[in-house]
Amino acid sequence: MTSSMDAAGPAQESAIEAYRVGMEYRRGWALRDCSFRLPAGRICGLVGPNGAGKTTLLAITANLLKPTDGTLKVFGMAPESAEAGRRTAFLAQEKPLFRRFTVAETLRLGRELNPGWDQRAAENIVRSGNVPINAKIGTLSGGQRTRVAFALAFGKRPDLLLLDEPMSDLDPLVRHELMGTLLAEAAERGTTVLMSSHMLTELENVCDFLLVISSGGLRMAGDVDELRSAHVLLQGARSNDGEPRIPAELAGHTMVEYRTSGRQATALIRPDGPVTGQWQADTPTLEELLLAYLRSPDAPPLISPEAHAPGKPYGFGGSDAVAA
Ligand SMILES: Nc1ncnc2c1ncn2[C@@H]1O[C@H](COP(=O)(O)OP(=O)(O)OP(=O)(O)O)[C@@H](O)[C@H]1O
Q: According to its UniProt record, what is one Pfam family this protein matches (predicted)?
């Protein structure tokens, strides 16, 4: 548990604190210098392009990988500690389950391996998808296997649930249902969820916290509403000299993205004062914000005070903090 104060106010327990975490594979660095804090009880979307380092970060948190550099703590403990392991569940992309086991045997194994196991919660998830309890895992469809993997993760009653693109092979109705189960569980038990996903619109309805990474580096982190309201989406007429250059009146603001299309110009900025000029100004939706950062890998990073690992110096240049 943390006990320090930071710019966000009185410290709340951290589910994850990462300080300068780096992971180098043979081919190069998959994560570099990642420092952030995920407060307990938040539902956090982990977003980034293919190969950004999302699975690597989740695997380090779940103690499946040791970082090459830096430290990461789960509820203040090393991921390899028994206590962190007991409090964390990881639903991996490949959903590793024993193909020869039946669904019932799989849940029994979950019960034997996990002291706080909740058989009813696990069975309910399996039953509500009409997955035959005596069928072998190898005979199930991809979506049915995902449901069993979800049941295993939920049955463990974790305090931190790590999900790696959990919904990619589920039909829209099942996605909706399992998301509902996830949110109800998180609300009832205060479970912290860290979930990687490429489905930006779905994240909008589910997440209240965000971590955005690209090329192994942290680009944006913090409370969703705080991050959204730190930005302004501007739409207006493109200057009629035909040049796609950024209008002079926007020069004093932090520019995340400037695009032109036909006679329209769109800019996503972090305003450093009032915006002048003929612009329609709106708070971006989460999807607009994420798309702008994903399209602009060179935009300066933004880490909100709440997402700063407490007491740690930050290596980011430029304006990297949302006003508290
Ligand atoms: N075991 C490994 N050995 C070598 N390189 C690896 C290994 N695992 C991942 N990488 C590389 O590390 C980088 C990050 O991979 P990672 O799987 O963490 O990305 P990701 O954000 O989860 O991607 P995706 O959205 O495609 O799932 C990639 O360049 C990948 O090729």
A: ABC_tran
ipTM of the complex: 0.97
Residue (of 28, 50, 20) closest to 214 by Cα position: 50
Per-residue pLDDT, 238? 79
Query: How far is the centre of ligand 1, averaged over its atoms, from the C-alpha of 287 (Å)?
Result: 24
Instruction: Give the architecture-level CATH label for domain 14-225.
Output: 3-Layer(aba) Sandwich (3.40)
User: Tell me, what DSSP letter sits at residue 168?
Assistant: T
Domain ranges of the chain: 14-225, 232-282
Q: Which atom belonging to ligand 1 lies closest to the Cα atom of 213?
A: 21
Q: Is the CB of 94 under 6 A from ligand 1?
A: no
pTM, two decimal places: 0.89
**Residue closest to 270 by CA, chosen among 299, 249, 295, 296:** 299
pLDDT 10s digits, 93-126: 777 788 899 999 999 999 998 888 999 989 988 9
Q: Encode 100-117: b = buried (16+ Cβ within 10 Å), e = exposed.
A: ebbbeebbeebeeebeeb
User: pLDDT (tens digit, 9 = 90+) per residue, 6-46?
Assistant: 444 445 899 999 999 999 999 899 999 999 999 999 999 99
- Sign of the Cα torsion 317, 38, 78, 53 reads negative
> How far does residue 27's CA lie from ligand 1's centre (Å)?
10
Ligand 1 close to Cβ of residue 245 (< 6 A): no
Q: What is the pLDDT of residues 178-208, one digit of tens each?
A: 888 888 888 888 999 999 998 888 888 889 9
Please count the other Cβ atoms lying within 10 Å of the Cβ belonging to residue 124.
15
**Mutate-to-test residue for ligand 1 from 26, 29, 32, 54, highest number of ligand atoms within 8 A of CB:** 54
Q: What angle do CA 45, 71, 183 make, to 5 degrees?
A: 25
